[in-house]
Structure formats: structure tokens, C-alpha cells
Design a protein that fits this description.
Layout: H1 4-30, E1 34-37, E2 41-47, E3 51-52, E4 61-66, E5 70-71, E6 77-79, E7 84-93, E8 103-112, E9 118-126, E10 134-136, E11 142-144, E12 151-156, E13 163-168, E14 174-177, H2 181-185, E15 199-200, E16 205-210, E17 214-217
Antiparallel strand pairs: 1-17, 2-4, 2-11, 2-16, 3-15, 4-7, 5-6, 7-8, 8-9, 8-12, 9-16, 10-11, 12-13, 13-14
């Protein structure tokens, strides 16, 4: 008969091999194919709460809802309609008495899917009102051309004080997009008035352009 120490050693070896095989099997199960979304892709989102320059502070978080599903470049759905994007206020300049409007910079940092998974993103505000400078594929993803990939911000303006999306183009030239541009671009006559505050209402739709590409698994509801 085998002595007791040898039995213990043999049993330990068997358990070790069994554990190694189980870990390898578990590791194999965890490997999930990832699909990519290229930098420059634009997501259409809808704001979930009001944004006001009078009340906003740097670091404030806000959320918006994905209006159209996000697909990979190969046509795989990665994020369904209704996914939540979290944004952060990165700079606030309130309206000034010399007529200059308020400005608000924001950045988008994460996306939460309905199944509870959260993915980090690096996204910036962009405009959806003009089709110039972008192309759309048959999966509903808008890809901006290099000329339209610029830093954008909310600018106070318009008769009702509504938000105007402003973007800084190459060479330091300013570009104003959207309703109310005339009120900002035109000369101020008569008495100088205080500029307009940024007022972005809940339900407002705009674009989030990805500064960096992302890789995600195919969406699964479970």
C-alpha cells in the first residue's frame, strides 16, 4: 500500500490539475469578441435635464439619452436606443454686461447600457442641424469629416435665450451654428445690454462626437 504522505501528495496534485483546468475553462468563457467604433463617429442624443449657465459649475454631471442605436463599423449593434451618456461641465463663463453671451464647455465621459454595463468614452459636443461635413451610413452612425471635427460649446443667444452651439475652427476663427446667430453676430446698437445666458432645455437633441475610438462587445439584453 502507498504510504500516507504519498497519498496526500497525489491528492494535492490531482486537485491542482483540476483547478488549473477549471480556471482555463473559465478564462475561455470570458473571451468575448469586441467590435470597434471609429473616432469621429457622432452619436445623436437627447438631454435629460435642463442646463443653465447661471447655475452650472465645473464638475457638474448631467445625462442624455441615446436616440439612435450605436453600431460598429461592421454593422453589429453595440448600444441600443435608450442607453445613457454621462456628461461633465468643464468650463462656465457667465453672461457679461458688455453684451458677451455666456459659454459652457462640456465633455462626455461614459455610456451606460440598459443591461447595466458601463463603458468609458471620450466625447465632445457637436452640431446636428447641418449635414455638411458629415456622412451617414446605413446603420445610423454619423461620421464627421476632419473639417467638422472641432471643439464645440454651448453659447447663450437667440430671442428666447436658447442655446447656440459654437465651435472653434482651425486658425482660431469663431464659428456660430444654429438659431440666434444673427443676434450674436450683428452689431449691438443703442445701449449695451448684458449678454444671454446659456439655457439648454431638457429634450434638446445634439451630437456627441467621439474623440477616441471605442471597442465594445455585441449588445446582449441579459
Amino acid at each position: 500500500m502507498l504510504n500516507s504522505p504519498f497519498k496526500v501528495l497525489t491528492l494535492a496534485l490531482i486537485l491542482s490539475l483540476a483547478g488549473s483546468a477549471g480556471a482555463q475553462k473559465s478564462s475561455t468563457k470570458r473571451k468575448v469578441p469586441l467590435y470597434s467604433v471609429v473616432a469621429g463617429s457622432t452619436l445623436r442624443v437627447r438631454l435629460n435635464q435642463d442646463l443653465r449657465s447661471e447655475k452650472a459649475h465645473v464638475g457638474d454631471l448631467f445625462t442624455s439619452t441615446l436616440v439612435d442605436p450605436l453600431y460598429s463599423k461592421s454593422g453589429i449593434m453595440l448600444a441600443p436606443q435608450g442607453s445613457t451618456l454621462t456628461g461633465k461641465v468643464t468650463n462656465v463663463i457667465r453672461a457679461q454686461k458688455n453684451g458677451k453671451p455666456a459659454m459652457m464647455d462640456v465633455q462626455f465621459i461614459s455610456m451606460k447600457l440598459p443591461n447595466g454595463r458601463v463603458h468609458r468614452i471620450n466625447g465632445s459636443l457637436t452640431d446636428l442641424s447641418s449635414s455638411q461635413g458629415s456622412t451617414s451610413n446605413n446603420e445610423g452612425t454619423i461620421t464627421a469629416k476632419k473639417t467638422s471635427h472641432r471643439k464645440a460649446k454651448f453659447i447663450g443667444g437667440g430671442a428666447g435665450g436658447g442655446a447656440v452651439i459654437g465651435a472653434i475652427a482651425g486658425g482660431g476663427k469663431g464659428l456660430l451654428i444654429g438659431a440666434g446667430v444673427g443676434a450674436l453676430a450683428g452689431g449691438i446698437t443703442g445701449r449695451v445690454k448684458k449678454g444671454s445666458e446659456v439655457k439648454v432645455d431638457s429634450g434638446t437633441e445634439f451630437g456627441v462626437i467621439l474623440n477616441l475610438g471605442i471597442s465594445m462587445p455585441k449588445y446582449a439584453a441579459g
